[in-house]
Amino acid sequence: xxxxxxxxxxxxxxxxxxRIHSELRLRLAQTFRALEEDPFLPSLRLHRLGGDxxxxxxxxxxxxYRIALxxxxxxxxxxxxxxGPHDEVYGR
Length: 92
What we know:
alpha+beta
């Protein structure tokens, strides 16, 4: 079991995400639960990021929406950093 740690930046982005994509509220709750239980579930499609985001990981919320995060396996924490469309989260 992992603990989700939210940053202030993530909280702001999450509020905006929910305002724009209220239809994904349930899917988002399911994603958070899955991350807490096992971030390596295939449905999350957890993967490492490269380039400027090297050292971070990302998980899938829906087809084109991602959560950028840092896994702290030794502490049992997942630090949530950003959420949004693929291109926004990855800075492209």
